[in-house]
Structure prediction request, 359 residues.
Amino acid sequence: MSALFQPLSLRDVTIPNRVWMPPMCQYSAAPDGPDAGAPDDWHFAHYAARAAGGTGLIVVEATAVSPEGRISPYDLGIWNDTQVEAFRRITRFLVSQGTVPGIQLAHAGRKASTDRPWTGGAPLAPDAYGWQPVGPSPLAFDENHPVPTELTVDQIRETVGQFADAARRALAAGFEIAEIHGAHGYLIGNFLSPHSNHRTDAYGGSYENRTRFALEVVDAVRQVWPDDKPLFFRVSATDWLAEGGWTPDDTVRFARDLRAHGIDLLDVSSGGNASGVRIPTGPGYQVPFAARVKAETSLPVAAVGLITDVEQAEKILVNEEADAVFLGRELLRNPSWARLAARELGGDVHVPDQYHRSV
Prediction:
């Protein structure tokens, strides 16, 4: 059997194949009013199409644990029960297609309060639905972003509680896997990296202090997330800085800590925390980071980053560089990538009755 189409069991959840959809923001939710942050028809159609296309796991885009935790005012959120009810429509359909529904719980930190990418992505003023971002230290992401307000210890604890509350709501909304967003220069990643964390208290300085907030979030979420359901963590394996940033060595060490705190799989990405860096992108350019974590720790990993070709994806799994692959842009281009890959590799994948003529 093709490696891509072997099921993967984590705790008591079995994912039918290793073709997974990563979180990709759609910036399409209402920015205010009673439906702010709730998924709408666009989100339903977007995720439903990939489920009907045979994708084994769909992790819904970065979903904010508080209104101030959104990247943009148009992001999804899960800080109230109206949002929970709207998500149920999506999770029900995904399950009906044999797809496991997952959700990424996020706080944007110092990169919050920005416009949608296709309208420039610039920081927004209060009269344009904007707000004041926060971070571990008063350090702006770049010269175009405002200086964030440094979180107090009490505010850090409040944010930990918001992650736990969001996990409870995600469970009520029908999600079977939760992922904590610790990558791409958002709040948890801000704390992890010495590039963005200049604190001198218990949440800054040493590796142990810089990882404290992340592990507190993991512990709080794991406490309310059922023991039979998996918990993922997304990490940027490197800041791509020559010095003064988060490194692949840190990621391997952190993976062991995450495993000890109840994380079941590491979603390995990179970058996003330092502006102006040159990242040597290319097909599968982030796979080596995942492969190293897999080789040096006991934590399962998923690889992501310009994985587009069927043979390429299969080879990553056959070579034991990762336990699963996340396909981002390719699933935006082709919602039925999994079904087409199964045809090419002789794998078994769910096909809706209405689409049997396409097999």
